Amino acid sequence: MEIQHIMRNKKTERGEEELTAQPPAANGGEIEVQLERILARVPPIITLPRPTERCKWTGKSRTGLVELIAPCERNNFKPPVKAIYKRAHKYAQRGQWLIPSENLFRYLLGLAEHSTDEYLATVKARAETKQIKTESQP
After folding, report:
1. Alpha carbons 64 and 59: distance in angstroms, whole number
2. What are the extents of the domains in the chain?
3. Has this prediction a pTM greater than 0.85?
4. What is the rounded CA–CA span in Å between residue 14 and residue 48?
């Protein structure tokens, strides 16, 4: 397997820029690369889709996005994705949710990585259990 290095600009003492090779972080580097690719295609701020429609960037429903950004019982009143609730003026009854795409996709990519780890751990545990059962049978 070939190791890839990330080239970064580093300023020397004289003020000149110099490229230095740095190895990527184990899993954090992969997420950052995926995040950069996604953010290149997505607008910096995402708004909620209309009712009964899905977000064209994530595929999530309006309710699914609201559960990620607004304090509610489903998220123990601690939303995992930071978002902005913008009102037209101080006394407006309604407003609009503005979701920074970087926050949203960083959270979703973290979920994907975490769920993959859980899935692999479950598969490994099942395989070990199955192996123990087959060894114990005469």
Report:
1. 10
2. 6-117
3. no
4. 49
